[in-house]
Write a structure and sequence with these properties.
Its main location: mitochondrion. This protein is of the alpha/beta class. 37% of the residues lie in helices and 13% in strands. It has 2 domains: 316 residues, Rossmann fold, CATH 3.40.50.10540; 82 residues, formyl-coa transferase, domain 3, CATH 3.30.1540. Helix 5 links the parallel strand 2 and strand 3.
């Protein structure tokens, strides 16, 4: 069936250069549609059309917290139907990770970030196995992030479900993978980032290890998983078989070490913390101004020369101690000290005017309010407003990827716990009202 969907995808309407909106205008227009949608109970799937690359793909989502939900959200943005399975009366743990909380539904704002475009059903994993098997049988993908072996005890492991649906793509996101001495350990972002060395290289040069401000290892793991799922779906068009995918936080974190890892593996060079600075490029860091900080980088000697010209210290670019990047790295402390004294004399706002049109990258260190008030962020319509069944509306950061032909959009607000249980059991599994009422009375569903 997927091969047919792919062929349909290739036959999308060609809007042509004259009739095509700019990419971001199209995204903004899609956001306007969301903003004007007054049907708070509308299913994410109702507004998916042939322009969505994953139209017709159904994903059974047994994940919680960040890595798994982020993965399935990205796939949902592309048009996949995502059924989020949650624990009755508790739900995804991230719903309680606050404050802040929504006023009426009492879901944490944290939960909103990776859960748009999904339907929520609450089914007890231990006693609702029959229902989950039926959902797996009619799904293309199952995504889960339990400690290896947990779902096998409930009859929901890969080897069990592949018998139910041989074409099922089963993606496991774990802390350390399904094999190895750490396989049974629970995994959280900051722990995997500690074991994987990311905390060791993050923070001020003379300070303690520090974590990144968001769960970057979780998010990256989710992105790896989303790409792997797409590859498996494509391979299935040739083999007609599903497969198991293992993605883990620790391996992801090690992959994020890039040049730092390569330096150790190939030259035996142990890494250290640099704050905002770069071990191999100078200047490349944040500098304090009168009203805050700005970050700039001169990745080439030509860029450094232009920086000196704009700062009216042209002689520095001809000084033998600073003429090449190698020279500047060797004399890092001296050149950074000089630039710190110059840049501290004016505001970041005024320096940005001086650097307008510069060939080197430069930008202010914004707080989060300034990020979303930034004229560029507002101009591209990145933030989307979505109607919510209890809290009027919520705001989310929309997809950062825009296609010229395909749709990739935020359509519906993150669901309330169990919001679609009756809908899914009735429409997909054919359960009647009395059957659903009995399941709810027995506390198997919510």
């Amino acid at each position: 069936m997927l091969s047919q969907r792919l062929r349909l995808g290739r036959g999308l309407v060609n809007y042509g250069a004259s009739g095509r909106q700019s990419l971001r205008n199209f995204a903004a227009a899609a956001g306007d549609d969301n903003n004007n949608n007054n049907n708070n109970n509308k299913s994410s799937n109702d507004s998916v059309d042939e322009r969505h690359p994953l139209q017709g793909i159904r994903i059974l989502d047994l994940t919680r917290i960040i890595a798994g939900p982020y993965c399935t959200m990205v796939l949902a943005d592309l048009g996949a139907e995502v059924i989020k399975v949650e624990r009755p009366h508790y739900g995804d743990e991230a719903r309680k990770w606050g404050p802040p909380f929504l006023e009426h539904s009492q879901d944490a704002a944290y939960f909103l970030a990776p859960n748009r475009n999904k339907r929520s059903v609450c089914i007890d994993l231990k006693r609702g196995t029959k229902m989950l098997h039926k959902l797996a049988e009619m799904s293309d993908v199952l995504v889960e992030n339990y400690v290896p072996g947990t779902l096998d005890r409930y009859g929901l492991g890969y080897e069990q479900l592949r018998k139910v649906n041989p074409k099922l793509i089963y993606c496991s996101l774990t802390g350390y993978g399904s094999v190895g001495p750490y396989a049974k350990r629970p995994g959280y972002d900051v722990i995997a980032s500690s074991v994987g060395g990311l905390l060791h290289i993050t923070g001020e040069r003379d300070g303690p290890p520090s974590k990144v401000g968001v769960a970057v290892t979780d998010i990256s793991t989710g992105l790896y998983a989303h790409g792997a799922i797409l590859a498996a779906l494509y391979q299935r068009t040739r083999t007609q078989r599903g497969q198991k995918i293992d993605v883990d936080l620790l391996s992801t974190c090690c992959s994020l070490l890039i040049n730092v890892g390569s330096n150790y593996l190939n030259a035996g060079t142990e890494a250290k913390r640099w704050g905002t600075a770069h071990s191999s490029i100078v200047p490349y860091q944040a500098f304090k101004a009168k009203d805050g900080y700005l970050t700039l980088g001169a990745g080439s000697d030509a860029q450094f020369k232009d920086l000196c010209r704009r700062l009216q210290v042209e002689h520095l670019s001809e000084d033998p101690k600073f003429k090449t990047n190698k020279d500047r790295v060797q004399n890092r402390e001296e050149i950074v000290s000089i630039l710190e004294k110059i840049l501290s004399k004016d505001t970041a706002h005024n320096w940005m005017k001086v650097f307008e049109g510069a060939p080197f990258p430069v930008g202010p260190v914004n707080n989060i309010g300034q990020v979303f008030e930034d004229e560029h962020i507002q101009a591209i319509g990145l933030v989307k407003t979505l109607p919510h069944p209890k809290d009027d509306f919520v705001k989310v950061v929309g997809p950062p990827v825009v296609f010229s032909e395909a749709r990739n959009d935020a359509r519906t607000a993150p669901p309330m716990r169990g919001q679609h249980t009756d809908e899914v059991l009735g429409e997909l599994l054919g359960y009647g009202r009395e059957e659903i009422a009995k399941l709810r009375e027995d506390d198997i569903i919510e």
